Amino acid sequence: MTRTTIPSFTLNNSLDIPVIGFGVFQTPPDETTAAVLAALGIGYRHIDTAAAYGNERGVGEALRRSGLARDDVFIETKVWVTDYGYDAALRAFDKSAGKLGVDVIDLLLLHQPRVEDFALTIAAYQALEKLLAEGRVRAIGVSNFTPAILARFLPEVEVVPAVNQIELHPYFTQRTSMAANTVAGILTQAWSPLGGITFYGGYKGPGKSTLTDPTLRELAAAHGKTPAQVMLRWHVQQGRQVIPKSTKPARIAENFDIFDFELGADELARIDALDTGIRGGPDPDQPQPQFLDYPIPAA
Hints:
By secondary structure, the chain is of the alpha/beta class. It has one domain (about 15-285): NADP-dependent oxidoreductase domain (TIM Barrel, Alpha-Beta Barrel). It is about 35% helix and about 15% strand. The protein has helices at about 30-40, 55-65, 85-100, 120-135, 145-155, 175-185, 215-225, 225-235, 250-255, 265-270, and strands spanning about 10, 15-20, 20-25, 45-50, 75-80, 105-110, 135-145, 165, 185-190, 240. The strands form two sheets. Strands 3-4-5-6-7-8-9-10 form an eight-stranded parallel beta sheet. Strands 1-2 form a two-stranded antiparallel ribbon. Helix 3 (about 85-100) links the parallel strand 5 (about 75-80) and strand 6. Helix 1 (about 30-40) packs parallel to helix 2, helix 1 (about 30-40) crosses helix 9 and helix 7 (about 215-225) crosses helix 8. It is globular and about 55 Å long.
């Protein structure tokens, strides 16, 4: 495949982020380095990981082996809920930076809201604001924040999040959440952008695969593309950053090959119409006590 110059979105602090990144959610630690090396070799320049994924070390090892300059790769990770609170979140940065083997993290997010103890969520974000002011992170943000949670959160913080990473795919289009993000100047980043949570490793959902959806298959055939490529193109044309994941080099390359076609307005609307309104992952507006069972080990 011809190497592609990746378009970018500009965050609210003027930092650029590639429109497509490579995700490593649920990628086993012993497979992470090879998957990330494959992605970097294909041309990806944004890697999304998280403390709770348990594979930050593998991402860091891939960075070291890649031969790429540190500034050439945009690294994103997330603070887990067991490290919320001001001092705990500062220590969480040290843990992640140590595992990644970097001094500066490009984008650091709060992984989930702790709605049952929102003061800890605010305090953790205030720690991220300090890290940003000190130049140890280049941008900060949140993940899985609904409009209701953002409405509680934004008046309590100084820095508007650069990114809100949320579940978003053709079967769960999150129009209200994306609109709330846009009004606040926050870039929407889609996790499970291909709807994988609807057919593997999910909590619930429609129980069918987007990859076999008749509408998506028809649109893919019309453009000589795959349903996955059509979904990723749908996202980026509507202004969302995407982080598809795979451990298979052919699929990693396929997901990156989305810059040589364009969907028409009617085609975008057809994909929008696939929305079921059914969330596949946990409801961020509800307490998730099980999340507290996963403390993050030190670097």
